[in-house]
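Box S1 | Example of a co-folding query
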Amino acid sequence: MRNRPGLSLNETFDIYVKSIQNSDLEGLFSTVTENSDFTFLTTNGELIDKRMKYYEFHEKWFEREGWQMPVELVEVREGKQYGYVTAVFHYRTVMPDSGKYSLDSYFTLIFHKENDMWKVVADLCTPIGQSFTDKDADVKINEKQYYLFNILKNRRTVRKFKATPIPDAHIKRILDAARLAPTAGNQQPWKFLVIRDRDRLGKLKKEAMAWQIEEYKRSRKPDKPEFESVRESIRNAVNNALSAPVYIAVLVDSEAEYPDYAIYDGTLAAENLFIAARSLGYGTGFFTSFFPEDKMREFFNIPERYRLICFTPVGEPEDWPDMPDKKKLEDVILYESFEPEKR
Ligand SMILES: Cc1cc2nc3c(=O)[nH]c(=O)nc-3n(C[C@H](O)[C@H](O)[C@H](O)COP(=O)(O)O)c2cc1C
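Box S1 (continued) | Returned holo structure for flavin mononucleotide
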């Protein structure tokens, strides 16, 4: 279907919609202005101001398969030189993880007459709502819920960072989320020791390498060639682990009211910290082995009563690691009681 002189606004709009539904770029652009300026306000609130960019947007979209977009007409107003159409589109697609995504949005198309043909000069979208449905569960979730589940899914232990500094306000935001974690009897036994000083971190790097090497020699008594290669890999690993701009030692007070639960409290705070950091785009890690508690206590003058839960970096990852293998849900979930064969 192609636009042609003499068609009504309604007929041109019909070509516009059917061209989109059939991923027909030529058909679609027979209804779009020939001028290089264009106004496209996307459903994400992004402003695209050139016809060429509007073209590229649709070109990219039309490469995708597995989507549908029924359109519901709301209003058509045809003047002499200008006209507009308001409609609702119901975009439906399948996500890479096989979940379903739906986006409903108003769009208003402003048309202008060019050579006796109606041509779109502006496309203004206003999202009404979007939802996601899990691939096997029939649970509909909205955008905010989807965002939270994705943060949980995309949190990763990161072991190499960019040096990009982190604003102090971000660290405070992250720790503000950490301190809201649940605790036994609401005892909140934590302290968060923040380390940003490069000199101090440089010294820690040297020390942590020495601790690891010492520990390795003690436990393995290696021969020389083996020792050389292990020393190199320890150096690399510690260097990478300490490449972030900020570190936080999560500590808990062993003299809190319910000391037996302080470790749980601290671990929950650490997870809150990880999730908050992820939502600001930072990687973290529950680091324990490179940073033994007794050595860290001495290095940072941590009082005897505090226990080190973990020492986590906070920083922009060099690369986001892939998710490591995780057990399947059906292998870890049980209902009501252990069946004899599952013991
Ligand atoms: C109690 C605990 C101790 C951990 N100790 C270390 C550690 O010493 N060094 C390290 O690189 N990662 C450590 N991790 C991170 C795990 O290796 C990581 O969480 C796991 O491989 C899953 O990867 P993910 O966090 O990206 O999902 C620890 C995690 C936990 C919960």
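Residues 131 and 143 are 6 Å apart (CA to CA). The pocket of flavin mononucleotide is lined by residues 156-157, 159, 285-289, 324 (CB under 6 Å).
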